[in-house]
Every structure is written in structure tokens, then in C-alpha cells.
Amino acid sequence: MSGERRGAILVGSAIVAAVVLVGVYLAAGGASYTPEKTQNPCKHRAWTNPEGLQEIAQQFTLSALDGAACQLGVSRETLARALATPEERERFTERYDITEAQLAKAVRAGLLRAVDDAEEAGALSPILAGPLRETLRSIPLDRAIELINNAESLLDQAQGILGPAQELLEGFLP
Amino acid sequence: MSEAPRPRVAALALAVGLVLADSSIVVLALPEIYRELDASVAAVSWVLVSFNLVMALAAVPAAHLARRLGPGRAAAIGLAIFAGASLACALSEHLSTLIAARCVQAVGGAAAVTAVLELLPATVGSERRAATIWATAGATGAALGPAVGGLLTELVSWQSIFLIQVPIAIAAAVPILAVARHEAATGVLSTELRKTGRPHLPANLALALISAAIAGALFLLVLLLIEGWRLSPIGAAIVVSVMPLCALLGSRVNGLVPSARARAAAGAILISGGLGGLALLPKAEVALTLPPQVMIGIGLALVLSALTETALGGRAPQAIHGGWTISARHAGVVIGILAVTPIFTHDIARQRHDAIDAGTAVVLDSKVSPLLKLDLAQKIGDRLDEEKGKVPTIGPAFEPLPDDPGERDEVVDLREELQDQLNRGATHAFSPSFGIAALIGLLSLLPIAFARRVEL
Asked: Do B291 and A65 touch (CB under 8 A)?
């Protein structure tokens, strides 16, 4: 075989090897092997038929985080990490140049959205939702954050306080 | 000549391999140096960049000096400086002294490598064979560097990388001393001082571009393995040793295909294809880096020897033109590292943020109890703080696992899903840089094609 032909075979083989490797890796999903994109918090996330207080509390927390994050213009995940500890919260407000008052307003708005979502999903009766909204409108920031992190206690308390009244009212309804 | 040619050829090849291994030998040691000398990532990269930059600047002047002083004396002095500077590197307690010692090491190395090219033809009896031995020794050294450096860092310390070079440099210098003594005794240079021809621009330009791509391959792959996928230096060394092994395989093809242009083109295509594969890794698995490494290793052997042969072929004096190739290669390494460093440091910060967001979403949407979620969120936050901006190993945040079997299974699934998101982020952070390195490799085909036109 002539030297020139060997050279052509070598170059051809290199091209084939390169194209095959890149093609196989692309077909195996190489172009999409990235972290999953997080969802826009301003977009409504439908509740998925929650059963039991714990599941309702989970969805309530997510709705509250979505609502607050939407108002602050950050992702739900960033806000969730920020609210985990006081140090994280301080870092977050410094990084995004947010005042405590702005954060409090956003967190309250988030909790109100969660009440709306819960009511819409049929997980919270209108009789409970009304007073809950009134309470949340003036709740202090630390307590509001506590409620986001442990919504189960809020719903449990609301049920405990307002449950008998609801049963009473429901008795009068047709 | 009192020395038998074989040990002298081995010593000359060893000198070239040793010096050129130094252009990449510290890659796997950089994280260790960074931690021990309390430096920033950008500052510690100068341990690598300074050596290559000084080699690029000093190679041609060193070659001229070698021709005036005599190649035997220049090689012996160069190796002595290299050995002394290596010792200084090992004893450095500050980053500034380490970088200064690396610069001196490069000056000595440049003198030794260019002088060896002047000595080799007389020893092996053919300029072409001398160029092939010189290029192969250099390519092998450069490819072996990271693996050897990684092993020494893990088994001993980063200082041992430099300490071990002292006796090797002395061992390589011993057979050369006979030539140096002969030059000193006779006052006659072993080579005739001839007029220097112009350097082969297309071949040297292609060498610079391909070296930039290879630097990207080695530097990025090592960082991906250690910083991205959390392998130990020894683990990363074993993984990247595939490249030099395949370079040895590729050097066998050199003998089968006489056309240097075809070998250069094939080598550049294989390197670019391999880098393209690394840019498109479909999963964070070490095994998936092997096919690209095989291609890069074979390509490395093909392209470096072919371009060096072309740059030196029919040109005199060899040391000066060898100096140009060294200059081009190391300038390429510097350009490659400086070009990809800001891109991947930016991408790794962005991907880390995206991966952490995606991981948080996984935790938030999981079915584990809210109190456990809160506990996990705090532990994960602590892990992120401990890792100071690196991609964290998330496993310890999930310890101890819950006692309840159902909840334990959910937490294990959650841990795997979260680590997957972080792995995706770490892997994807390197993709654009590998892609750019692949494009630089493809760009080298232009001067290779142009070299063909001027040669014809």
C-alpha cells in the first residue's frame, strides 16, 4: 500500500472515530446532562389531591414559598435555603439587597397565596380560610418563617381552634 | 566519544522527557499546594503557567546560547540549574518562592532540551531519527506528567514531585558530562555554527494551537475528576494514565504512515473529537472519559511528532528550530490554560448554583416529613459552607439514616437524586471549556492544511 493511501486511511479513520464518539455521546444525552431547571415561582403549581394533614402542610409550604419567592424575584429553592437558618437569612438579604420589611411583606404574601391555593384545592374550608388570612396579614416575620418551615403546626392549630366552630356552622348549612 | 551511544541516547531522551513532563506534572498537585500554601486558585495556577511561560520565552535564546557555549556544556549546565531549582521548589514554603523557583527551573530546562536536540543527531547518526526521538520523549513526558505527579502527591507529598527530579536530572546529566568535558578540553564545538534559517511558521502555529487544546484536555480533565467528581489525586492519576499509554500506542502508527501531514491532521482530528466527547459526557462516570482519552492519547503521539518533524525537517541548526517548537508548544499551553480558566471558573460557579437549586427542589418536592426536610436542609447548608464554593459530596448530610425502613428508603432515594443533580452541575460546568479546547484543536487544521500548500 502506498504511503499516500495509508495517510488517507489514517485521516479517514480519525474522522470516523471522532464523529462516532461525538454522535454516540450526543445520542446518549450528552447535550442535556445538566441540572434540572427550577420552575418559575410565579407560575401556579396545582395541588395534587393531598390527603392528611402532613401532605396538606407540605403543599401549603411549597405554595407559600412560591408566593414569597415570586414577589422577591428569586427562585423558590433559593428562598427555602435562605429561610432555613437566621445566618442564611442574613446572607440572603445582603446578597439580594432586601430589607427585613420587604422580606416580611413577601413571606406574608406567600402565606396568603398558600391559603388561597389550599382553599382552591378543597383542602381548607372557606370558614377556616377567612380568619387565617386575617391572622397572617399582621403576623411578625419570625413567626411567619416558622409557619413556612412548619406549616403543619399552623394548620393543626387552625383546625383545633376553628374546627368546632366550623362543625357548628356546617350544621346550620343546608 | 567514550560513552556507548545507547545509554547516552537514553539519558538524552530522559532529559527531554523530564523537562517536558514538568509542564504538566503539577496539575494534580495544585489543589494540595493551594491548601498547604493558603493561596487563591488564580494565584496557584501560576505554578503551572510560570513554568510554561518562561519555557516559551527562554527556548530560542537558550538554543542560541547552547550553540555558542557548546551543546554538551549547555545541556549539563541546564540540567544542573534544573536540578537545583527543583530542590528549591521542594523546599519552598511560600507561593512566591515556589513560582520563582519554577521560573529558574524553566530556564535550565529550556537550555537542556534545546541543547539535547543538538547532541542527538551526532549520537544516533540521523537528524530525522534524532527529531523523532526528541519529539517522542517530549510527548511521552508531557503525557505522563499528570499521572506521575498525582501518584507522588497522594503517596508522599507535592514536594516529592520536585525532590524526585533532582536525582533524575543528575542521572541524565552524567553521560552528557563526557561531551561537555570534550568540548572544554578541545575548545571545539561539536557542531558547526551555521546561519539560522526561518522557523516553519505553519508547523509552529499548529503546534501552539494543538498544545493549547491538549493543555485544556489535561488541565480540565484532572480538575473535573478531582474537584467535580471528588476522586483522590491517585484515583485521578490512574484515570488520566490512559492518555500516555495510548500515546505510546499512537507512536507505533508513526512508523506505518510516512506522511507527516496526514499524521498531523489525523492527530488533530482525534484530539478534537476526544475533547468533543468530553464536552458531551452523558453521565458523571469515569468509564465514559476513557474513549475520549484513548483518542486524545493516540492523537497526541501522532500530531506532536509529525509537527515537530515538519518544523525541524531540513532546517538547520536543529537546536534553534527545536527551540522554536518548544516555544510554540509552551506558549500554546499558557494560552490554553489562560483561555479556559476564566470560562470554567465562571461556569462552575453558575452550575454549582443551578445544581444546588435543582437539589433543593428535589428535597422540597420529596415525600419525607417536613421536620426531616428542615433538618436535611440545615445539614446540606452546612456541607455547602464546609466545601467553600466547591461541588460538595452530599452523602454525610444524610447521616444517620432514619430508623423507619420506609422513611430510610425515601431518604436514600433523595440522597441519590440530590447527588445526581450536583454531578450534573459539576460535569456540565466543564462542557463549554472542553468544547472551546476542541475548537482550538480543530483550528490547528488550518495551519496544517496551509503547511501542505507551502510544502507542495
From this structure: no
